[in-house]
């Protein structure tokens, strides 16, 4: 790692609010080097297009209304710019930085732990939600409460498995009383999110809910206005749909989410009809 690259890397750590670092072992030094090299690369741009989702009858039911569905493995056909070892090492270093972040004092004082992300680092698809809830804060894993169980059923209905996608949130700490994250909190966490997605380099991102869509895409449009077409984040196609927690309150919206999932799977070349 040259002097300029090292200074850039240390600057990114300082921007994250970290003021002290442990003495690195030889293994950790290697991981840090791999992480930095990975995060310096750029994601290739992809052409953006805007097809419409398949219309769904008002009376339609969805496969994720029930607990069971057949799942098949969805393999990646794209060539990865990073090796799986580079991704894992880079994510481990980034997760350590997230744990040490102290920018949002209210979140730091109230959290049990940070919630980084979970899943296959080589996944083609990344699901992005809003913020951790109480269950997630206790266990350190995103989407494990009631909304997470519904997301699991949606994933299985798409003939995938939870462990072959990647799941993360807009911010890494639980807001007190499950309130919405503030603009400042999202902005503070944005460098972590950007670097996480750069390391993961998924082929597709699915934003779950308005807060995820708003902050990833820098838009004020509602989910209803954003549905039904592809958006772009750093050359990665993005699909927007309703958050599973919203479906728990508004079950009628499940048909819309199922239409969005069929649209997304079709874009990915994965037939779920």
CATH architectural name:
3-Layer(aba) Sandwich
Radius of gyration: 19 Å
CATH superfamily: Uracil-DNA glycosylase-like domain
Indicate the proportion of strand residues: 5-15%
Q: Tell me about the biggest sheet?
A: 6 strands, mixed
Category by helix and strand content? alpha/beta
SSE run:
HHHHEEHHEHEHHEEHH
For the record, the CATH class is Alpha Beta
Q: Which percent bin holds the helix content?
A: 40-55%
Strand order of the largest sheet: 1-3-2-4-6-5
Unreliable parts: 1-10, 21-25, 38-58
- Count of folded domains: 1
End-to-end CA span: 49 Å
Describe this structure as you would to a colleague.
The protein has 273 residues and is of the alpha/beta class. The protein has one domain (3-267): Uracil-DNA glycosylase-like domain (Uracil-DNA Glycosylase, subunit E, 3-Layer(aba) Sandwich). Helix content is 43%, strand content 9%. Strands 1-3-2-4-6-5 form a six-stranded mixed sheet, sandwiched between helices. Helix 3 (84-99) runs antiparallel to helix 7 (183-200). The chain is globular, with a radius of gyration of 19 Å.
Layout: helices, strands, pairs:
Layout (H helix, E strand, L loop, with lengths): L2 H13 L10 H14 L44 H16 L5 H6 L7 E2 L5 E5 L4 H6 L6 H12 L8 E4 L13 H18 L3 E5 L1 H8 L5 H4 L4 E3 L2 E6 L2 H6 L4 H14 L6
